[in-house]
Design goal:
By secondary structure, the protein is of the alpha+beta class. It contains two helices and eight strands.
């Protein structure tokens, strides 16, 4: 079993009344490796100036974690199969909508990985789909959520 830790820190500035909801949602995410990432609510959820559009919001982070986990598994599985990956790019999207219980939730994440292989040897479309399927079923994050996660490889 592995433990992972983050520290999320928000602090009210001296000028915010707080109870009127006119406070900044900007905060930081500190990871155990030392990286600090600016976080905020999404401007789609909490309007500017109370959100920081330049910071990462939880919904973006959710999509990124699914995409990153899938990519890391894909690279591992491709390498074990003898494929040489030169580039991997995923323009993933997530949908925030009402779920079956009527609650706001990330209801769907679509991964759109486009993979470039070393010249001379690339998998067939069927082999590529199989690699992505194995990556999807191996992904810790995808296995941890009830959101529909769809992989639509760019072939």
């Amino acid at each position: 079993m592995a433990q992972h830790s983050t520290t999320i820190l928000w602090q009210r500035d001296d000028k915010s009344a707080f109870a009127d909801h006119r406070y900044s949602r900007a905060h930081t995410w500190s990871f155990d490796g030392g990286v600090v990432v600016p976080g905020s609510s999404s401007p789609h959820v909490v309007p500017l100036p109370y959100s920081d559009a330049a910071a990462v919001d939880p919904e973006e982070a959710f999509v990124a974690s699914l995409s990153s986990c899938h990519m890391l598994w894909f690279l591992d599985i491709a390498a074990r199969a003898g494929w040489v990956v030169d580039r991997y790019r995923d323009e993933a999207t997530g949908t925030l909508a009402r779920n079956a219980e009527g609650q706001q939730a990330m209801t769907r994440v679509v991964l759109r990985p486009a993979v470039q292989f070393a010249p001379g040897k690339s998998p067939t479309a069927e082999e590529l789909r199989a690699l992505h399927h194995r990556a999807h079923t191996s992904c810790f994050i995808a296995n941890s959520v009830k959101t529909e996660v769809v992989c639509e490889p760019v072939i």
